[in-house]
Amino acid sequence: MNSGEVIDVTRDAIVTFLKVGGPMLVVALLVGVAISLLQALTQIQEQTLVFVPKILALAAAALFAMPFMGDAMASYMTRIAERIAGG
Fold this sequence. Notes:
- The protein is mainly alpha-helical.
- The chain has one domain (3-86).
- The protein contains 2 helices and no strands.
- It has helices at residues 3-42, 51-86.
- Helix 1 runs antiparallel to helix 2.
């Protein structure tokens, strides 16, 4: 395996990682910002307030994005298996 193939595999892995993890990170970021804004506006300084809404939002996002994430991981594994079989 030469350096060009290693770079291609690494680039493909990073893109797949961003496809799989990106939606969850965006949901966590948006919920965190919304709760922080709510805390700033109402002057509620409870540190644990963000956990329950964030967990519920991430669970809903995971259920919604699971087919997409599974497809991205399966297609990545198929591409890697083809590279291994191809030599």
